[in-house]
Amino acid sequence: MGILEVKGVNKRFGGLQALGDVNLSVQENTVHAIIGPNGAGKSTLLNVLVGKLIPDSGSVMFDGQSVLGRKPHEINQIGISRVFQTPEIFADLTVFENVLIPCFAKRDGSFKMQAIGAVTGHSDIHTTAEAILDDVNMLDKRHMTAASLSRGDKRRLEMAMCLVQEPKLLLLDEPTAGMARADTNNTIDLLKEIKEKRDITMCIIEHDMHVVFSLSERITVLAQGMPLVEDTPENIKGHPKVREAYLGEAQV
Amino acid sequence: MLGLNSRDFKLFIVVCIMALAAPILLNPFPTASALGESFNAGYPALMQRFVIFGILVIGFNILFGLTGYLSFGHAAFLGVGSYAAVWMFKLLSYNVVPAIILSVIVAGLFAVVIGYVSLRRSGIYFSILTLAFAQMSYQLAYSVFTPLTNGETGLQVYNDDPQILMGANSPASPHLFGLEMNSQYTLDISGWSFVFQNGYYLSAIFLILGFYLSIRIFRSPTGLMLRAIKSNQTRMSYTGINTKPYMLAAFVISGMYAGLAGGLLAAMDPLTGAERMFWTASGEIVVMAILGGVGTLVGPVLGAGIIKYLENIVSKINDGILHQWFAFMPDFLDNALVSIIHPFIGKGWHLTLGLLFMAVVIFLPGGLVQGGQKIGGFFRRKKTDDAADGAKTPAE
Ligand SMILES: Nc1ncnc2c1ncn2[C@@H]1O[C@H](COP(=O)(O)OP(=O)(O)OP(=O)(O)O)[C@@H](O)[C@H]1O
Ligand SMILES: [Mg+2]
């Protein structure tokens, strides 16, 4: 049994079968990549996992509990965090405030009325927030408004916000899209480091094959909403069906 | 100090001084002078409005300023608070304590219901829902609820009301354990007369408390959550936070401030009518907040003060007064000036307000507080790291 078990998930948008009978099993403490051409249904699958979309049929089990029917904040609280394809951060708040919020969410749960004491009084939260910003090398930018960050920094900030919650499963939707080569390599290093430091399972969607092959232990190939194959990176590289459906167009 | 950081504490002290010294500060001109008669605002009836509407807009700002949810029906809570207070006067006695407590509680409960329903939607739909509720309350006050509101006559205290706690020699007007709201002390100093009224000071103390509480809320974890909701609701839910109860809490707190303001209005003058809930009253609250500076701490108080000042001072100026001022000029100049200014004064004060409002929205989207900060920044060139610190916390 994997930590995440997706069985027979279907999702239609009108006439379009975005997900067709998807099965996926992600083992604990591994990095599992999901690849596939544009429109293959990768983001749709993540949307199902985080409770943004309800599938037409199928089941999703995480850590022994069913995910379906739960609200996004409940799914996050049981240990799934997500980095979005376009970063979802608190653009009007400072970098530091951005990481404070997941710290509070982790410590206090989905709602706790604390309207009188100052934020600055929660020194444990401040320590955690500073530590994570240090981990992603953004401590010097803590006072900056998140909106003013570069694209790469926005992604790193979003990653820090997810990591500070110490999720059991981290979902990453194209974490290096729009990044310069150097930033991409930094992200690979960062993710490798995270994997070594903590017990974390990652599910990563990525078009950049360099990233996929540097990080993942298993790869699932999705095409037109169907899982084509699931195998180790070595086997995927040489797989004829994969080459035909996907890698043929990309440089490996 | 008092659990505030030093910047907030200074701001708080400034507001305390302004509120407590208002009877002096707002009377800059000798009482009998032409300027004094036109521009002095330090008389109790007007000062009460400054602080009571200040309280109302501080509360409104906790909702609109922090979360970005624009309630267009906030006057409903003000109206409900006033009704609750007058009922306490009718049933118990003229003591303002039960009246004010009940006005806050009733407005809070009312806000739970309206908030619960309205917060199912966001953006313009939320605003429309709150507006609909407020207009519904206004209309019902004239029809179904006339036994509670006394319809068009308005709710007031009659001689045959129970007033069960009324002692033989209790005052026959609102009082705080015998301290009558409308009793005042006048201090005459060489041409100036300063009026210190109990009612004003009771309201001012509530303003100070309300302002203090709002600073605490702004700087609290809940305040941070509310600002984050304004910034990105999607990220909030994927960060494991249930935004609904936070929103409802902000809505109810904000409604309770409005209820307090309503209770105080009734404590100053123990009668009320449904017009307090009319949509123009709700609109005025929005204008006050935007004029002063949405999401800033003092902006709401400033906005409320300026609008009440224009409404009461500019609207009283007439052509006769203008001719008096310009009497030293040649007649043709005097007449020309008066005819230019004429549309902006008296009943035309709304035109002045409209122009001011447009100017602020276009040139100072952060409200007059932003204007003040720009001027302040111009005069004292602050160190850059200071400025970076300033960006971190919402402006005062
Ligand atoms: N909410 C929606 N409503 C209608 N159609 C949708 C919706 N979300 C996705 N789709 C469609 O479903 C298909 C799969 O989309 P999805 O975003 O999952 O692809 P993807 O694999 O993430 O592609 P990309 O690599 O471009 O991000 C696409 O054809 C898309 O247009
Ligand atoms: Mg996608």
Keywords:
heterodimer, A: 252 residues, alpha/beta, Rossmann fold, 2 domains, 6-stranded mixed sheet, 4-stranded antiparallel sheet, B: 396 residues, mainly alpha, two-stranded antiparallel ribbon, two-stranded antiparallel sheet, 18 helices, 6 strands, 66% helix, binds adenosine-5'-triphosphate, binds magnesium ion
Give the SSE map.
The complex is a heterodimer of chains A (252) and B (396).
Chain A: E1 4-13, E2 16-26, E3 31-35, H1 42-49, E4 57-62, E5 65-66, H2 72-77, E6 80-83, H3 95-108, H4 123-135, H5 151-163, E7 169-173, H6 181-197, E8 201-205, H7 209-215, E9 218-223, E10 226-231, H8 233-238, H9 240-247
Parallel strand pairs in A: 3-8, 3-9, 6-7, 7-8
Antiparallel strand pairs in A: 1-2, 1-4, 4-5, 9-10
Helix pairs in contact in A: 3-4, 3-5
Chain B: H1 6-25, H2 34-39, H3 44-67, H4 75-91, H5 96-118, H6 123-142, H7 146-149, E1 155-156, E2 175-176, E3 179-180, E4 184-189, E5 192-197, H8 198-219, H9 221-231, H10 233-237, H11 243-268, E6 271-272, H12 279-292, H13 299-312, H14 319-325, H15 331-341, H16 349-363, H17 367-379, H18 384-392
Antiparallel strand pairs in B: 1-6, 2-3, 4-5
Helix pairs in contact in B: 1-8, 3-8, 3-9, 3-11, 3-12, 3-13, 4-5, 4-11, 5-6, 5-11, 8-9, 8-11, 9-11, 12-13
Bound molecules: adenosine-5'-triphosphate and magnesium ion (MG).
